[in-house]
Amino acid sequence: MSRELLELSAAEAARRVRAGDLSASELFEFWRGRAEGDETGSYLWVADAPGDEPESGPLGGVPVAVKDLFCVEGVPSAAGSRILEGYRPPYTATAVSRLREAGAPVLGKTNQDEFAMGSSTENSGFGPVRNPWDPERVPGGSSGGSAAAVAAGTAPWSIGTDTGGSIRQPASLCGIVGLKPTYGAVSRNGMIAFASSLDQCGPFGRTVEDVALLASVLVGRDPCDSTSLDHPEGIALPSAERLDGVRLGVWGLGEEGLEPGVAEQVRRALGLAEELGASTEEIALPHAGHAISAYYVIAPAEASANLARYDGVRYGKRTEADELLDMYELTRHDHFGEEVRRRIMIGTYALSSGYYEAYYGTAQKVRTRIVEDFRAAFENVDLVVTPTSPTVAFKLGERTSDPLAMYLSDYYTTPMSLAGIPAVSIPCGLSEGLPVGLQVVGPAFAESRILDAAHALERAIGFEGVPRT
Amino acid sequence: MTEVRAYEPVIGIEIHVQLRTRTKMFCSCENRFGAEPNTLTCPVCLAHPGTLPVTNAEAVHLALMIGMAFGCEVPERSIFHRKNYFYPDSPKGYQISQYDHPLAVRGRLGDVRIHRVHMEEDAAKLVHAGSSGRIHGAERSVVDFNRAGTPLVEIVTEPDLRSAAQAAEFGRLLQATLRRMGVSDVNMEEGSLRMDANVSIRPAGEATLGTKTELKNMNSFRFLERGITAEIERQEAILHADGQIEQETLHFDPRSGSLTSLRSKEEAHDYRYFPEPDLVPIAPTPEMLERARSALPELPAERAERFERDLGVPAAAARMLAFRAELGDLLEAALAADGADARALANWVTNEVAARIGDSDPGDTRLEPAALAALVGMVEAGDVPRSAAKDVLGVLVDEGGDPREIVASRGLGAAGSDELAEIVDRAIAGNADAVEKIRAGNDKAIGAVVGAVMREAKGRADGGEVQRMIRERIGS
Ligand SMILES: [Zn+2]
Asked: DSSP class of residue B78?
């Protein structure tokens, strides 16, 4: 029985619960046991029991693991940071409420880079997460716990957030599917903020269908988030098996930092796409190569303000001192990690009088150019495909002393973040025995189209996940 | 002896107005003054992790009304910025404010140009225990977050004011205008109206501006005037001694009359403004603009002009009636009762009624507008002497009633002409000495005869009328 439950896709499990063929409470207990037995460091908290989620909902009682930075009332929600250790929010994030209302109980809170700042989950204040494919390697980040839990089979599916690649890159490194929706498609209310103009909630799953099903209940305008929008078409469950007439624009296969093994698997997937009826052509995104630079100005700038509230005054950790300024400085020095402090410094500098135009102003101009690049590209192609990560999963500790090398992990994912457009990463093969991700990108609100294409490719690729024990 | 140069002050005012909305600027907490500390809070205004601001549409409406009252241009889009600073009164570590794209620009109030009108949120309130009264050296400081997130409008004038008195007068006009619009409580003591002044001086006749200083948070118009006066004198003294004005922010202590520096230019904050990514721009639609425009009542400046032009009320009285809208309302209600002439009524309202009720609202007394009109009408007709009428007004304010009945029942009516003539005759007969002196040209002597008449008439006679009758009789 348990082997069968482990192999079921989440969408299939939901169908069985709704049909009365599977008990939701049994299902919860099964996954709770799996989460409790996790050995990857994916979980920071595991729920004891489900709430009163309706089994008849579209998510049919299938529990969902939630990245730590989603506020859940009464449940520890620390965004992977020691400064919020023990903090239990007085309210619940809209995304989590929507999942619950659709029938999915919260299974647990997953580990992440502190405040979502990182690409390996090594910046967590609560210890690293290990990649289920190789425990010596990172799962990617910042949503590493949410990705590793699904890959390792300790969660049927999960949600994370993506600011510059934090869903797509760990999905790629863990060999699962991860979707970053259009900016504004999912409410940010209750998501502990990193960079507000980029942060977006999205799902992880073992299949494209699972991801589409979660996404379909996540999207929608929320009166608590002024930047959220109604999804014009909603998200349909994918059904495409062919790609006839679909024009794919290929970007970034000639980049220097791209591992040959990764390039090879991506090329193989493109060959399969052509066999399914798609056409492929190389395209130029002239400014996308500057996305990393712009991203690492804009995101820290916003973060420097977003993280100002962790001052020891109202909640969270405080280091006592006699003078106010000392209290601020000691609290923030003692309880923020090194990467968070580095980005606050970068962001503060970028916004400082006399530097604002040179850094923040220029970065925003680059962002506008990247938006225009994609707009132009989508006049000639239907979708854009790229590698998700230039490399397969790297070793723990390999890049921690070299922030710039770490930042380059986001080379293929930051352009879409800056443009605010949807992108999904699907596994497309192995290189050196480790998964490679293929990124499929569409114009704003084209989630259904990229998921359909991903679904057709998924069938053709036939990727086998990491063996689960 | 060195020549004492004459300087011209140049003053601009920055006003913070708390808007009278049902809820706060970016959350659904009640917006109310005077509640128990920290009872009007929620995760948003306490800046809990993950919370997002949502702009209060009612606040935007009131702010648009303010912009329109000044005849401002309203740009198609205005945006919010984050103003970053660390202090316990700032729960998010930044204030959401408007920066280079304000809600409304280029308007006018009276003869002062309005530079801009923008929206922002108020800070929390800090209370420091201990003798210093400031956070440095305080034994303990506590924060009340009820005020955090209260909707504010900041109004910035051009430096068009040339004296402390003019600045205070402008403040009063602004307060009356906002009060009339109903957009704010405009209570300076409670902090719903706060004023800062930018002050510089320059040699009279020069066009370039001198270095300005900023006077913070003066909580009455009197203190505003005194503070600006003190600052002008301080700057004049510095320039007379060939010194240099430092750009700084000053606090005026009304008790000691002294100015203390809060921070110098070097200590000025770098607020690191950047566009607030959690909010979308404010893009007022034609419907929003029309709704704001049609919500504007007649404003005090227009009303004063109308009183002066249409009713012939003298300028000072017209301004008083317009600035204290409740007095203007009393006048108009009394006029509608059709009992007395407008000028006479305006005179009574601005003098006798104002003196009698002080700062309170005539609507809170027993005085009926029609009764006031009737009383003033009786005075005009000579049916009741002015001095007796003041007593009647006192009765009307305290107890109400019909002025005719009060006059009749208390025997306050003017003495009849026959009765008065007899009294005058008796007084002339009884004061032969005085009458002799008057006939001999000593005009002052008439006082004794008038006094005798008034004593016997017990105030029911008009002094001027009595004098006229005495002169007529003795042929002087
Ligand atoms: Zn609130």
From this structure: B
